[in-house]
Structures are given as structure tokens and as C-alpha cells.
Amino acid sequence: MHGLRRRRRSLLVLTSLATxxxxxxTASTASASAKPRPADPLQRQVExxxxxxxxxxxxxxxxxxxxxSAYAGTAAMNTQRPMPRDGRFRIGSATKTFxxxxxxxxxxxGRMSLEDxxxxxxxxxxxxxxxxxxxxxxRQLLQHTSGIPDVKPEIPALNSANGYRAERYRTxxxxxxxxxxxxxxxxxxxGRGWSYSNTNYTLAAMITHKVTGRxxxxxxxxxxIRPLSLTGTTTPGTSPFIPGPHARGYAAFGTDRxxxxxxxxxxxxxxxGSIISTAHDLNRFYAALLGGRLLAPxxxxxxxxxxxxxxxxxxxxxxxxxxxxxxxxxxxxxxGELLGYVTWGGAxxxxxxxxxxxxxxxxxxxxxxxxITLMGQxxxxxxx
Length: 384
What we know:
Strands 2-1-14-13-12-11-10-9 form an 8-stranded antiparallel sheet, with helices on both faces. Strands 3-8 form a two-stranded antiparallel ribbon. It has a two-stranded antiparallel sheet with strand order 4-5. It is globular, with a radius of gyration of 24 Å. The chain has 13 helices and 14 strands. 47% of the residues are buried. The protein is α+β, with helices and mostly antiparallel strands.
């Protein structure tokens, strides 16, 4: 557009000043109308995610000298309320990276080992129906190679609208979650396969409590949230409410009708999916983690040493997935979902560029693909 203006000014130089100003103004207006300024690439991608059916979308990308945010959709269904700036949301399984970080810090301090068995720290907890904590290591919990069955199908609030309405305020203890998980046989012998199980991370939270004498939530706050000043991040315990500005969350439970599921006691997801955060806080967490500020090199190497995770179509380390980039190479991050909020977040291998995107709905296949596309494109920009 600027070149067009310069050419027109040169052609009008022999006319009167008044005519030149009028002509240039008219030409500029017409040009602006005919060729609008291209939208920001991040904004276009966020709008593409909204167009897949998401109610609200927010994404933020960070590098050492820049921070770019984009929003689309609304904060509540059937309203015109805009998405809140830096709103809070349930990060779901992205919580697992926080839990693994705490465990690996304890390993680095010599207070426990990745080769310790579950039985050493939690005698008798993993027992029955072929489950045996004597043969399952802490490493296998964090890596999802323990074979321990997932407790999520045993939680009514997470699996149907009626279950949600009946149990959204219910409190679960970690011991009760283990009892429910032990009703099923293991998916495979320890170390002989890979299967995503939230139960693994509830056990990791219980072991953290045993090792430190303090709750998982306290350790996460004191080791990660406070040192990084993640002011929008909380471990809500049994509180069913999201503190601070937030958009409403929606779930359809496999039907064609979504309901508001914002209110939820997340005690069924302790260690595995209960943290509330913001896109900005998650970006800062991933930057600190991959940048080497939370773990010593030996423990960060353990976390980022990955193996195939066929269920996810990626590789998985200890609480962190390795995801291919469209420009070659890979990044580290984690998907998260807890009833009504779905997020993808991660960072380049050195932590210098991070991206987080979340939606306030179930996130069907088209939505998921659009979110993955955003992550890949934004994290590849560091190479351009």
C-alpha cells in the first residue's frame, strides 16, 4: 500500500496542492477499502478454531522479546460477552507436567528414586485383581507404562450429563480413587506396554505426600507456582469454582447438546488434572521448565527422553509429550482437558518460544486438529 501511495504522489506533483491532497486522500481511502490489511496470523488461526464449533478460544505465544495474544468467540454461549483477557481455565492433564516436575525435583534432591516401587512408598495401595505395586516403579507411573487402569471411567461426573448434575460437588479422596481403579485388572504387565492412565498421577501425588510430609498441592505451590510468580495459577483442592475472570466451560458428553459444566469439584483429578491457570502462566511455566530453571540437567533429560505413545500418536517422556513440528524437529508440551476446557501448550526444546491455546468446549476432531495446527505453525516461526 505504501508503494502505491508513493507512485500516486509522484504522478500528481504537477497539479495544485489542494487537488493533490484531495486525490491522495481519495485514492488512499479506496485502496484501504479494496485491500484491507491482512489479519494477524495468530488471530486468523484462533478464528479458524472458533469456526470448528468452539464457543470461546484464546491463544498466546511468547518469545524472549515478544508476547502475542488472540481471542475469538464469546465467554458464554448465546451471549456477546467477549472472552476475558488472560482468563483462567482448568488445564486438565497439563497438570501432569507440574506433578512430574515436583517428583523429578525430589529425585534430584536424593529424597527418592525413579526406580523406587509404588509399594515402597504406598504399601498395599496398589493391590488386587492382578495389580501389584511391588512390581511398578515411579518411572513407570510418570511414563504411563505401569499398566494400572485409568480411574476416569469410574467417575460419573466426567462421563454423562446426569452424572455431572448428580456429582459435580462430590469430593473424592485419593484412597477412594485407588479403590475404584483397583476394581479392574491391569492393562498389561508393568513395563510391557503404554496406556494413558490418570491413576498413575494420582499415585505420584500420593507418593509426593509420603516423601515430603506435605500435600501435593503445597509442593506444587512452593516449588513451581510461587517461585515463578504464576499469579493466575491455583491448586483448587475441593473448591468447585474457578477464581478470577474466566469463560464458561461446556461439554456434550458425546451427544449433540452441550451443557454448562463450569462448576466442578476437581478432587477426582488430584495430581492428574486439577490445576487452574492462564495461558500466560502456562507459557511462563513451559519456558522455565524447558529453559532449565526448574530441573537440573539430569532430571530434565529424564523428562524429555521419550518413547512411542501409540494412543496419542506422539512420543512421551515423564509427564511431557514430544510432538512433531511441521517444519521438522519437535516440541515438548501436553494436551489438557477437564470437562469443558481443552488446552494445548508447549515450548521449543530450549524453551525460547512457547505457545498455549485453549477452548471452552469438548474439542471435537476438527477443533483438535486446528489447535494442533496453531501450535505447530507458531512454534515453527522461531525458525523463519
